[in-house]
Amino acid sequence: MRENLGAILQSSTRTCIRQLKYAILERILYDGAKELAQVESDSSKYVLSPDNQEIGEKLSEIGAKLDYPLLNKELVQDVRKLWQDPAIQETYSRGSILQVPDCAQYFMSNLDRLAEVDYVPPKEDMLYARVQTNGAVEVQFSPLGESKIGGEVYRLYDVGGQRNDRRKWIHLFEVLML
Length: 178
Prior knowledge:
Layout: H1 2-39, H2 50-65, H3 73-83, H4 86-93, H5 95-98, H6 104-109, H7 111-114, H8 123-128, E1 136-141, E2 154-159, H9 166-169
Antiparallel strand pairs: 1-2
Helix pairs in contact: 1-2, 1-4, 2-3
């Protein structure tokens, strides 16, 4: 049972990381560059070089389908080339405006490792992979590991941070004792 759960978690984490990579490049950076090009007075710095426009459209189509293929060497080359484009880098430098996740640089620096056929995400990748939380998710853990006998069990609540999500989790703290 534990092995099956581990395999499921690793598989879902790989899928999550794969989706996150496409989301960072396609949805945030590529679309962000287009958006900035429309509103900035010096919009030329947000226009992809002609060599990379086709790659940008290709990745945009992948993102629109929400059917993310495995990251292979060809896609790594495309993603890396697009990431290095001056328009994408300029967009990334304005990340706080576009809400670019701070993990973008980390994943782009590790593309080759992420594309390995036998890739299993280490803890560091899992920590960098951020997925928006909706509502409240409870995780129970013990400092003694799997054996909770004789030990304390801690509950960690991961709650959505948006104002409209608060009504979904505020009841968790009604009987809180400090």
